[in-house]
Every structure is written in structure tokens, then in C-alpha cells.
Amino acid sequence: MVAALGLAACGPTVKPPSPPAEPEPVSQGTTQLKVAPAARRVVVGEMCPQGAGGRPAVAPLVMRAVDWNDTVTEVAATVERGSVPRFVVMGTDGRVAGTFETLGMVEVGIAQSVATGTYVGASPCTYSTSAGPKPGALDTRAEDPKCGPATRGCGIAVGELVNPGDPPSTATYETGGACLSGTELAVDIDGDGKIESFPLAGALDGTRAPAQEWTASPTATAACQPSYQLYGLELKPEPRPGKPADKGLVTVDVLGVIDLDGDGRREIVLSMKFPTVRSIVVYTATEQAQRLELAGEATSFSR
Length: 303
Known about the structure:
Layout (H helix, E strand, L loop, with lengths): L1 H7 L33 E11 L2 E10 L3 E2 L2 H9 L5 E5 L5 E11 L7 E8 L4 E3 L12 E3 L3 H5 L3 E6 L17 E4 L2 E4 L8 E4 L13 E3 L14 E6 L14 E9 L8 E7 L4 E7 L6 E9 L4
Antiparallel strand pairs: 1-2, 1-9, 2-3, 2-6, 4-5, 4-9, 5-6, 7-8, 10-11, 11-12, 13-18, 14-15, 15-16, 16-17, 17-18
């Protein structure tokens, strides 16, 4: 599997059509998307083992309650009220690496408060080396050497919403994989065995921010080997006269392909590294697998 990740990380550079002068940092204010009332209610964040002065912390980023919401104050307030007492932290293989128990909220100098607490488990940059541990036994895991340089040892964390004071709830999340075929991201969104192919350049709009909609190509791309995470995919505009060729480079990492809200369609969680900021972006298919919508975007821990 590690070999497959390494191969995917060396994908070709993609050139979006006619971008403006410079890419802009990701901005808040995504249009809230309505979702099925019966869908799972969750907060999506990023857990860094040393995110709060050397202690484990989760930056809450995007929330799925009545609808998808990335408003910083609302997402943080939900965690602060005690509605997310536990997060599960995913490893590089899409299996749970550990659990984070929320104790409180602190400021660490980023856009939102972060949750502090206790983390029990392996590094988010590990993958399981066994088919599945026996009940009561520890999962044997190994380090993915490509993960650390890309994520600084942090990983996606998902916590279910509960009423404040209620015991934590831990759900099982269906995961999938993605791979780069030519200049398109190939992924099976709805688990029907058919690949949806999304042009990588389509993840950015004309203002060099995450696109509100990301539509699959009408025909599927050639087969490739999917993995839960991919690193180092490049979105690079044509160089302008007198500017360095790498000016405005946006590096994209796929941090997970996972059904967050339990509707049978997997979300895609991306990291977009702009020249001055790194943001976490969540895409969801609310109606059909061939059309992804921007569920939310937020700035996480500084790099």
C-alpha cells in the first residue's frame, strides 16, 4: 500500500485555465447545504498530537448538523458546549488510529479555538498491518513515511454530535480511496463499483478559491490503484511574464475519502496549501455522485 501511495504522490502537474494573477487564501462563508434530516450529525476537525503547546488538540473545522456549516464561531461553540465529547482519529488507511476525549477549549493563535483533551492511540500517520485485531487486542500499526512531511503528523478527526451531558457516541465510518489518473482524481463516491473522475483543475474556481461545485467528467478515466490518502498533487497556473514559474502553486493532499454523514455517499476531504495559508476543504455529493458541492472550508493549525 505504501508503494501505491508513493506512486500516486508523483502525479503530473495540472494547469487550470487562465487563473488571475495570484491564488487567494481560502475564505470563509460557504453557502450552507441542506441535507437529509436522518443524516449523521458530526463535526470534522484536524487532530495534531502537539497542537496545543505540545499537547493533543483538535481544530474543529466543519459541522454537519441541520446543514453543512463552516462558520468558525458556530462550529467552535458547538464543541465548547460539550456536544462533541469524543473524536475518532483516522489513520492513513482509513481505519481508526485512536480516540480523542474532549476536555475544554483553548486559544492557540489560529482563527478558532481548539479542543484540548486526551488522545489514546497511534499516530495519525500510521496504517494497520493486520487484517483486524481480535476483541480486546491492540491493532498493530506501522508508520507511513510520506504522511509526516505532508501533514506534520496530524490527521482528520470526526466527532458525533450528542446532547451536552450525554455519553460519547462512536460511529463506524465507511471509507474509500482515490487515485490520480492522468489529470483527474478517480474515486467511487457512492460505492457502486463505478469510478467518478473529477478533473483536478476543477477543484479551484476562477478566483483561485475552492470551487463551489466540482463536476465529474462524462467518461471515466483509466484504472488506477486507489488509496485513502494521496499527497503532493499540484495545481499550477501558467507562469506570467516576469514571474517565477512556481509562483501561485497550490499543493493538494487528499486527507480522506469517507462517508461522514452516513448517507451512503463518501465525502472527499482535501488539504489545499496556498502560498501563504493551508486550508481544509470538504466536498460532498448531496444529490448525485457525479456532482460534488463545497460543504465547507476552514484554516487549521498553522504550518
